[in-house]
Amino acid sequence: MNDLLTAGKVEATTDAQGIATVSFFHPSHNSLPGALLTELADTITRVGQDPQTKVIILRSEGDKTFCAGASFDELMAIEDEAQGLQFFSGFAKVINACRTSPRIVIGRVQGKAVGGGVGVAAATDYCFATTQASVKLSELVVGIGPFVVGPAVERKLGKAAFSELALDASEFRTAAWARDRGLYAEVLETTEQLDQAVAAFATKLAAYNPEALTELKRVFWQGTEHWDELLTERAGISGRLVLSDFTRQAIERFKSR
């Protein structure tokens, strides 16, 4: 098996205030193979159900890239629609884990977010970023589309901005652009400032009534109760498209750059 498909890690810690930090890492620009996506989703769910948890911080390690999205090596290994469905359901699991968690999830985006990485950021309830945290939905470049992450991105940015990102698939949008359209609540100059802002906000939330926060979260996500089925349906679309000759050739060209 390709070593990159088994590389990476997910870690979770909870401090005395009940602030839980879920962190992921992958040596290939924090891309997320299927196994790591499942582990990340399961960890978010487990931590959110822990009575000690008051709030969750979701972050990645490293400096330059928050999350580069799907693993191209794993993408190329897909042989049929069933495997395609399973692969593209990975980001659906993470988005739905954030959505259904009874705890507020704070995003910490220190660098670029690409493809599924934009979806992860959009699935958080309140997201901080640095000026380096530009965004790009690159799926169309390789012959598919941002079908699975689309509902989460559209919910945060609106249909017009989602359409802009999805169609202009080869270009990054700045962190300021993402902030102005609702993906990021605040954009900081440095990682140090980012961490200070995230910690201060998490501390503030951890002091509030947890029951009130849970009820607020239900209000925030009202109308998404069908997302288990919707995101699976969207994963099936991508799973079918990835088998096309067009997509296979596009991914090969992309990898050979």
Automatic annotation (TrEMBL):
Tell me the GO molecular function terms.
isomerase activity
Q: InterPro entries, per this entry?
A: ClpP/crotonase-like_dom_sf, Enoyl-CoA_hydra/iso, Enoyl-CoA_Hydratase/Isomerase
**Signal sequence interval, chain numbering:** none
Annotated Gene3D superfamilies: 2-enoyl-CoA Hydratase, Chain A, domain 1
The entry's keywords: Isomerase
Entry similarity comment: Belongs to the enoyl-CoA hydratase/isomerase family.
Establish whether keyword DNA damage is in the entry: no
Question: Is Isomerase set as a keyword in this record?
Answer: yes
Q: Name one Pfam family in it.
A: ECH_1
Coiled-coil spans are none
Q: Which SUPFAM superfamilies match?
A: ClpP/crotonase
This protein is called what? Enoyl-CoA hydratase/isomerase family protein
Lineage, uppermost ranks: Bacteria, Pseudomonadati, Bacteroidota, Cytophagia, Cytophagales
